[in-house]
UniProtKB/TrEMBL annotation:
<dbReference type="InterPro" id="IPR009057">
    <property type="entry name" value="Homeodomain-like_sf"/>
</dbReference>
<dbReference type="InterPro" id="IPR018062">
    <property type="entry name" value="HTH_AraC-typ_CS"/>
</dbReference>
<dbReference type="InterPro" id="IPR037923">
    <property type="entry name" value="HTH-like"/>
</dbReference>
<keyword id="KW-0804">Transcription</keyword>
<dbReference type="InterPro" id="IPR018060">
    <property type="entry name" value="HTH_AraC"/>
</dbReference>
<dbReference type="GO" id="GO:0043565">
    <property type="term" value="F:sequence-specific DNA binding"/>
</dbReference>
<keyword id="KW-0805">Transcription regulation</keyword>
<dbReference type="InterPro" id="IPR003313">
    <property type="entry name" value="AraC-bd"/>
</dbReference>
<keyword id="KW-0238">DNA-binding</keyword>
<dbReference type="Pfam" id="PF12833">
    <property type="entry name" value="HTH_18"/>
</dbReference>
<dbReference type="GO" id="GO:0003700">
    <property type="term" value="F:DNA-binding transcription factor activity"/>
</dbReference>
<feature type="domain" description="HTH araC/xylS-type">
    <location>
        <begin position="166"/>
        <end position="265"/>
    </location>
</feature>
<dbReference type="InterPro" id="IPR020449">
    <property type="entry name" value="Tscrpt_reg_AraC-type_HTH"/>
</dbReference>
<dbReference type="Pfam" id="PF02311">
    <property type="entry name" value="AraC_binding"/>
</dbReference>
<protein>
    <submittedName>
        <fullName>AraC family transcriptional regulator</fullName>
    </submittedName>
</protein>
Length: 273
C-alpha cells in the first residue's frame, strides 16, 4: 500500500492523465454542460461544431479542440459528415499553462490542422484498471502529446522571453557537484554570448557566474554540515571540491568558520534545543 500511496501523491502534481477514448463516426453530441477536467480532442475525419462562451467554432479533420474545466460547452457532429475523434482527459496545475503556450485558451479552445501522426499519440492507457506503472507511462505520454502540440502550435505572442539567468542558475544547481564544471560549460549550456550572460547575471545577482557557482557550493556545503553526518572530506567532494584543504580555505573565506567549527557550532545548537 505504501507504493500505491506514493504513486497517488506523485499523480497529484503538475499534470496527470485521467482517461481517453475513440469515438467512431456517429451523431453523438454532448451538452450544453460543464466538466471538471480538461479534455483534448483530435478530429480524425468528418466535421462538427463546438459552442462555448457565445461563440461557435466549425471544426474538421486534422483540427483539435479542448474542453476547459467549468466552462459550459456544447459540441455536436455535422449531420451530413459526422466526425470521428480521439480524446484524452487530464488534470493538474500545469495544464492551463501548457495549453496557453499552445494558444488554446477558453476564448479560443481550438488548434488548426495537425500532422496525421497525432492521432496515434492519443492512445495512452484507456483501461480504468490500469496498474500504477501503466498510469505513470500514460502521464509521460500525455506530456509527450502536448509537446507535439507545442511544437506545431506554439503561441509566440504569449511565450515569455528566455530567462538566461534562471537557465544558468538551474544548470549550476544541477551540476555544481562536478569538480570539472567551468564557466565556459555554463555559457555553452545556456547558449548565448558569454559577455551578454555575464552582464545579465551581474545585473540580476550582483555576482559573476563563477562567484555565484562558488557561493552556491558553499551554501550546499553549509546545508550538509548542518543536516548530515558526512565527513568534511565527503562534504567537500559532494559540492565539487576534490581537495579538502582547498575547500576548507574557501569555506572559511566565505563564512569566517572552518568546516569543523561550523559543523560543531550547529551540532551544539541542535543539542541545546
Amino acid at each position: 500500500m505504501k507504493s500505491l500511496h506514493s504513486y497517488h501523491s506523485y499523480r497529484s502534481g503538475g499534470l496527470a492523465y485521467l482517461f481517453g477514448g475513440h469515438k467512431p463516426s456517429n451523431l453523438h453530441k454532448w451538452g450544453p454542460g460543464v466538466r471538471d477536467v480538461y479534455a483534448l480532442h483530435y478530429i480524425v475525419s468528418g466535421k462538427g461544431k463546438l459552442e462555448t462562451r457565445s461563440k461557435t467554432f466549425s471544426l474538421q479533420a486534422g483540427e483539435s479542440f479542448v474542453i476547459f474545466p467549468d466552462e459550459e460547452v456544447y459540441y455536436y457532429p455535422d449531420p451530413h459528415d459526422p466526425w470521428e475523434y480521439v480524446w484524452v482527459e487530464f488534470t493538474g496545475e500545469e495544464a492551463a499553462q501548457l495549453l496557453s503556450l499552445i494558444g488554446m485558451v477558453p476564448d479560443k479552445p481550438i488548434a488548426a490542422q495537425a500532422p496525421d501522426h497525432l492521432q496515434s499519440s492519443f492512445y495512452l492507457s484507456w483501461n480504468a484498471e490500469a496498474r500504477s506503472f501503466e498510469k505513470m507511462r500514460a502521464d509521460a505520454k500525455l506530456r509527450l502529446l502536448l509537446s507535439y502540440y507545442l511544437e506545431y502550435f506554439a503561441d509566440e505572442t504569449t511565450a515569455a522571453p528566455t530567462d538566461y539567468v534562471s537557465l544558468a542558475k538551474k544548470y549550476i544547481a544541477q551540476h555544481f557537484w562536478k569538480s570539472t564544471i567551468t564557466v565556459a560549460e555554463i555559457v555553452h549550456a545556456v547558449n548565448i554570448e558569454r559577455s551578454y550572460l555575464f552582464r545579465l547575471f551581474k545585473e540580476a545577482t550582483g555576482m559573476s557566474v563563477s562567484g555565484y557557482l562558488a557561493s552556491y557550493r558553499i551554501q550546499r556545503a553549509c546545508e550538509l554540515l548542518r543536516s548530515s553526518n558526512l565527513s568534511i572530506k565527503s562534504v567537500a567532494y559532494s559540492v565539487g571540491y576534490k581537495d579538502q584543504l582547498y575547500f576548507s580555505k574557501a569555506f572559511k573565506k566565505a563564512t569566517s568558520y572552518t568546516p569543523s567549527e561550523y559543523m560543531m557550532l550547529h551540532r551544539s545548537s541542535e543539542q541545546e534545543r
